[in-house]
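Researcher: Structure for this, please.
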Amino acid sequence: MRWWCSAQGVAWTWTWRPYLGVWVMIAALAVAYVRTYRQAPPAVSALDRWRPRAAAAGIAILWVLLDWPVGALGAGYLESVHMEQYLGLAFLVPPLLVLGLPVGWEARAPAWIRPAMRFAQPLRAIVLFTVVTFVTHIPVVVDALMVTQLGSFALDVAWLVTGIWFWWPVIRPAEPHRLGPAARLGYTMAGATAHMGVGMFLALAPFPLYSVYELAPPMAGTDALEDQQRAGGLMMLGDVMVGLTAAGVLLYVWQREEAKRLSAGSTTGPAAGDEGTGRT
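Model: Predicted structure, token format:
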């Protein structure tokens, strides 16, 4: 039994391998959400009732991304699988986990989490998210970290945590740093496309950039350079898909907010008109 997925330098086999650290992390996260919902007030809207399902989906996807075989393949054999892990840990799991928190959770959050919540201001969050993405795709950094379980764990956690920070101002905005509808849209599009250059660099590089994948025991039907190009294409495609999906959702939310505002205005308008008519 190993603690975390990392590059091992041995030939790949489809023999199942247990990873204790992944199980402990997933179990702890599931228990934390269950306890949170036991302390939460009853659901009052359809969205509230969907929140536990979003949390469950986020935890399940996180387990798939980190455990065998996806975690092991991405850690030391196929860069394209490693890129799928990045996209999932940065763009898919975090919004589900953030959305999956019950309404009013911020007021009941443990004291040790509140500094991290205060850190999640839009400018800080997007800068940190982008910097971490660039740094964790530098070849010397990847080659140094992926060969140890602790280093591989650090990469996975860095993507997950900065992803949560990035999505927090969009999904759970708080004063005084609340973003308006247009700002939320621009913020999300900027964060989703800021590192397109990383994917383009991987796709256009004429030789393998990462020793951990170039020197990995070969798998039948794979080539290190082709796999790297596939990883770059996945990153660019993933960024585009995330940007378009987020734009669609945020535009829909914006339209709903405007409709509610106009409806509220039309409700108060006739009352004022009636009062004026009464005075004449």
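Researcher: Any notable elements?
Model: Residues 271-280 have pLDDT under 50 and may be disordered. The CA atoms of residues 199 and 235 lie 5 Å apart.
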